[in-house]
Structures are given as structure tokens and as C-alpha cells.
Amino acid sequence: MAVPPQRLSVVDGALDAIGRTLEQVAGFGDRVAVEDPGFPPLFDLLDQLGMERVPLELDAHGVRPASLAAALAGDVRAVVVQPRAQNPTGRSLTSTRARELARLVRRHASPVVVVEDDHSGQIASARDVSLGTYLPDGVVHVRSFSKSHGPDLRIAAVGGPATVLDPLVARRMLGPGWTSRLLQRVLVDLLTDSDAVAAVEHARRLYYARQRGFAAALATHGLDVAPGDGVNLWLPVPDEATALVRLEAAGVRAAPGSPFRARRDVAPPGLGHVRLTVGMLRDDLDAVAAAVALAVGARPLP
Ligand SMILES: Cc1ncc(COP(=O)(O)O)c(C=O)c1O
Question: Which domain holds residue 39?
Fold first, then answer.
């Protein structure tokens, strides 16, 4: 974690950490700011908790300050952001932007907790930037080990102020209690064994190279997309349904973009997206890029 937290605990994944944190800092009917586009299960979690999502706009540096200022003025209790390898856009927060956003939260009249979902951890290439550097009492930072070390470990670390973490840990004792120490030992071994450390570092480099290689291949087929961090690539398409059908026919699996939208209104025509994953690409970069370009209409169908 970028900043040593007052309290540190281990829970059963990032979503578990976020859900438990939100239960401590907000209640039924409260408003919570989320990135748009963002992680669909987070939206479902908020629906389950009866919390209202307030969409935040993103640019290449992270959440737009004006958008956060508007959400704060709208009385949000919490703000959930992904500091790096944002799912689905692959963008990462810069430290200048983190400072700007932290300043806005600090100046806000009532306390707001920022929850940082560092879901990609060591497979992300961007630095581990945190608003906690500027707001040590107002940030809960979550680091998942699902993407870097395996989703079946079901482990995330959550660090933050005692005012949030102590009641979170106390509440959890009335349920699972703790995360299996056997699994925690497996993770400690993976984090300290030199072969395992090298394997994760190798994966990070591969994803970095695949993002750039695939963006370059797409460019040669007429599609201009900035490479992201981590495994996800957010691709604008003229029409989501058509693109998905064509991609499927070409054997390319993609996720529809609309579930990633925090806004409930339908995207206007011409503003659709699909999310691709570069994780499994190998020497087929060019063939896949050609199929994607055809499917999204960058090239006319033969
Ligand atoms: C943005 C984001 N948050 C949270 C998660 C879930 O992580 P975990 O498996 O640690 O619950 C994911 C997994 O894909 C994710 O992409």
C-alpha cells in the first residue's frame, strides 16, 4: 500500500472488502459516487445495499475533479475508485490528480470516505497511487490478490482508519471471523518465493507488452485506441449489439459495454463500447486486431 494504514486486515476478496466498508460508512438510501464506466458487480452491490450510485466522469488521468466536486455537492457519503488498471478502461490515476481529488474531499464540509479498489495489484504497471497520501484518515485502500495470484485464494488486504476498520473487523467476527490462515500462508509464500515473484513480474510485463502490441495492431487496421494498464481494453463501437454478434462470429469474446455504465439511461446511438481482454493474446495479435476492426466497422465487411 502506498501509505501505511492505521489498521490492516485480510478479507475474502476486493468485493468483500468494498461491501463491508460501505456497510460501515453509508446506509440505506445514501449516495455513493462511482466511476462511469465502472465495475458492474459494484453497481449491483450498491443496488443490494439500497445505496444510490452517483456517476463520476473519467479522463486520461482518472476521475475528473469537476465531476467529483458535483458529486460531493450532491451529498455523497463515499466515493469508490479504482486507482490503476481501471476496469474497463485500463486507465490509472496520476499522483497530481490524486492530490487534486484529495483536496476536494478534504475541503468538503461533511466527512466522506474514499474506497480505493486496487484489484489488479502487482499485474498493473502504473504506480500504486493513493489519495491516502493526502487524506490518511479518509481512505480505505483495498488490494486484491485475485488477478495477480489467483482468484481462488479469495484474498484481499484492506487498510484504513481505525474508525472504519475496527467496526468492520468486529462485524466480521459475527460471520466468517477471519480468512483461512492456511490460505494466507500460501499467499505469503507466493509473495516471498523468488520463482513466484518472478512469475508475477513476468505476467505484468507480458500484459504491458500485449496492451501496446494490440493497440499498435488495431491502429494498422484503422482503429485508434490508447493502450491501457492491466488486461482490459475499452473499445468504442458504433453499435454494441452488432459489434458483439460480429465479434462472436469471428471467434473473439468480448463483454458488452452497457453493464459497465453507471448511468441507467441507454447510451445514445454511436456511443457504445465493448470490453476486450488482452490477457490471453499471444502471436495472434494481428489476426485478432483484423477481426476486431472488421467487427466494429473500421473496415467494410468483405
Ligand atoms: C474492478 C474490480 N474490482 C473488484 C474485483 C473483484 O476482485 P476479488 O476477486 O478480489 O473480489 C474485480 C475482479 O475482476 C474487478 O475487476
Answer: 7-192
